[in-house]
Predict the 3D structure of the following.
Amino acid sequence: MKASFDPAARTKFTPSHRKEGKGFHKEFALVLPHTDCPGGPRANAIATLRIYWPGTVCYACLWINTEPVHTSGSGSAGGYGYCKMSAAAGEAIANAGITLSRSISGVGESAVCEAMHAIAAALGHPDALLHIAHA
């Protein structure tokens, strides 16, 4: 899978999609390790995708902060019969101005992981680690 960022794309972030404190489900973070820091090794996240699932609707919020890309996007998915997490994540990625070479909407968590790795490569950090945190 490949990802590309369009700096001219119109992004969309809906603040109500953030469900901090009620419904955090999972976080996918692209992390760059730094071993030469004073005081010991450190890491910083260049992209964070948070999944919130407070009820029947799944929400996703994506933030990217690394030079030269600073963007965000959010998405949601409801209904039944498909993977809502990957559908919400796919919408958040698209709403952040990122185009994937194939859709991840509704096809499962492994597609979300693959998309995050593609985003890391598109940002110029193919060596970024994918850290997944669960609620």
The longest strand covers residues 24-34. The first helix runs from residue 84 to 95. The chain has two helices and seven strands. Residues 3-134 form one domain.
